Amino acid sequence: MNAGTEHDGYSETDADLIAGSDWPEARRLLYDMVSTPSVSGEETNAAEVLKAFFEAHDREVWIDDVGNVRAPADDSVLLTSHIDTVPGHIPVRVEDGVLWGRGSVDATGPLCSMAAAAIETGVSFVGVVGEETSSRGAWHLVEDRDEPDAVVNGEPSGWDGVTLGYRGFLDGTYVSTSELGHSSRPEDNAIQSAVAWWSRVADFFDEEYDGVFDTVTTKPVNFDGGPSDDGLAVEATVDVQFRVPPRLTIDDVREVAEGELTRGSVHWNKPIPPVMMSPRTEVARAFRVAIRGAGAKPRLLRKTGTSDMNIFAGTWDCPMATYGPGDSDLDHAPDERLELTEFDSSIDVLVDVCETLAED
């Protein structure tokens, strides 16, 4: 795959895109994918581009019921990353060895590096949909597929970094109702009860820990309150989110939130559990060796957000890690961009990791 080929339609951009690369086809896939809008819920066109790449290399591939691109093969490793991006148009261009465009970092860069490595090594691959919203692709995958021997999830870590931990995610809506009365009455109405409830919950988790990763982050993301349509009651709703560190469970946080209720109730959405993988698994070890072999000192990372790896780890009992090129500080940013040499290096590392795990 890493031999240079002719390609129509790129002209001068093509020369800049593949200059000096051992992975020209992978870079062209990256350019095409970044150039194809793929906001969550609108991934169809990008999925077809990705599917065509596997078809061109004689790999079995299909698009499943929810829109995931599935290319099963050697299940010693499953490489998987997400097709969708957040909204925001960034003109796609290549300048001084850097590709600019929405998704170049989160996570089209990791996705395309994994597609290239899957073709090179013959391991399994899935491009999932909806990671930026409901993770519908990952949830469908764990319900519809057998557990692989190992998983490498694709998110930006820098080509010399490996992510082993993520906080979990819990969200829900608090709902309260009270009788409408004159504002001079001393009793709390539903709005006051909502404010008081959230204050108690936030105060409970306002603890000092060694860094954000070990802390429960509490966020109210929407507040609505006022008289009901019939004018007989006061209603209040609060949409809330919690980021849950691996030292706690989702149930621990939910129990605290419900324990602080004096009025009203909380309606929870489907949670995503936290995950913290050991640095001693065969996957982590393979990455450390591969990164050192490529000339860098490996960095083991913990992320304060949440990824599809949380979903995989919550269902599958196999070693896993998250990896991919790009600076995660550029996730969702208006200047999102990826150095193409870093993209190439990440493919080298992934190929080494897949070959090592296939031998074990």
Automatic annotation (TrEMBL):
<comment type="function">
    <text>Catalyzes the release of L-lysine from [LysW]-gamma-L-lysine and the release of L-ornithine from [LysW]-L-ornithine.</text>
</comment>
<dbReference type="InterPro" id="IPR010175">
    <property type="entry name" value="LysK"/>
</dbReference>
<dbReference type="GO" id="GO:0019878">
    <property type="term" value="P:lysine biosynthetic process via aminoadipic acid"/>
</dbReference>
<keyword id="KW-0055">Arginine biosynthesis</keyword>
<dbReference type="InterPro" id="IPR002933">
    <property type="entry name" value="Peptidase_M20"/>
</dbReference>
<feature type="binding site">
    <location>
        <position position="332"/>
    </location>
    <ligand>
        <name>Zn(2+) 2</name>
    </ligand>
</feature>
<protein>
    <recommendedName>
        <fullName>Putative [LysW]-lysine/[LysW]-ornithine hydrolase</fullName>
        <ecNumber>3.5.1.130</ecNumber>
        <ecNumber>3.5.1.132</ecNumber>
    </recommendedName>
</protein>
<feature type="binding site">
    <location>
        <position position="82"/>
    </location>
    <ligand>
        <name>Zn(2+) 1</name>
    </ligand>
</feature>
<dbReference type="GO" id="GO:0050897">
    <property type="term" value="F:cobalt ion binding"/>
</dbReference>
<dbReference type="GO" id="GO:0008270">
    <property type="term" value="F:zinc ion binding"/>
</dbReference>
<keyword id="KW-0457">Lysine biosynthesis</keyword>
<feature type="active site" description="Proton acceptor">
    <location>
        <position position="131"/>
    </location>
</feature>
<feature type="binding site">
    <location>
        <position position="106"/>
    </location>
    <ligand>
        <name>Zn(2+) 2</name>
    </ligand>
</feature>
<comment type="similarity">
    <text>Belongs to the peptidase M20A family. LysK subfamily.</text>
</comment>
<keyword id="KW-0028">Amino-acid biosynthesis</keyword>
<comment type="pathway">
    <text>Amino-acid biosynthesis; L-arginine biosynthesis.</text>
</comment>
<feature type="binding site">
    <location>
        <position position="155"/>
    </location>
    <ligand>
        <name>Zn(2+) 1</name>
    </ligand>
</feature>
<keyword id="KW-0862">Zinc</keyword>
<keyword id="KW-0479">Metal-binding</keyword>
<dbReference type="InterPro" id="IPR001261">
    <property type="entry name" value="ArgE/DapE_CS"/>
</dbReference>
<dbReference type="Pfam" id="PF01546">
    <property type="entry name" value="Peptidase_M20"/>
</dbReference>
<feature type="binding site">
    <location>
        <position position="132"/>
    </location>
    <ligand>
        <name>Zn(2+) 2</name>
    </ligand>
</feature>
<dbReference type="InterPro" id="IPR050072">
    <property type="entry name" value="Peptidase_M20A"/>
</dbReference>
<dbReference type="GO" id="GO:0005737">
    <property type="term" value="C:cytoplasm"/>
</dbReference>
<keyword id="KW-0378">Hydrolase</keyword>
<dbReference type="GO" id="GO:0042450">
    <property type="term" value="P:L-arginine biosynthetic process via ornithine"/>
</dbReference>
<keyword id="KW-0170">Cobalt</keyword>
<dbReference type="GO" id="GO:0016811">
    <property type="term" value="F:hydrolase activity, acting on carbon-nitrogen (but not peptide) bonds, in linear amides"/>
</dbReference>
<keyword id="KW-0963">Cytoplasm</keyword>
<feature type="active site">
    <location>
        <position position="84"/>
    </location>
</feature>
<feature type="binding site">
    <location>
        <position position="106"/>
    </location>
    <ligand>
        <name>Zn(2+) 1</name>
    </ligand>
</feature>
<comment type="pathway">
    <text>Amino-acid biosynthesis; L-lysine biosynthesis via AAA pathway; L-lysine from L-alpha-aminoadipate (Thermus route): step 5/5.</text>
</comment>
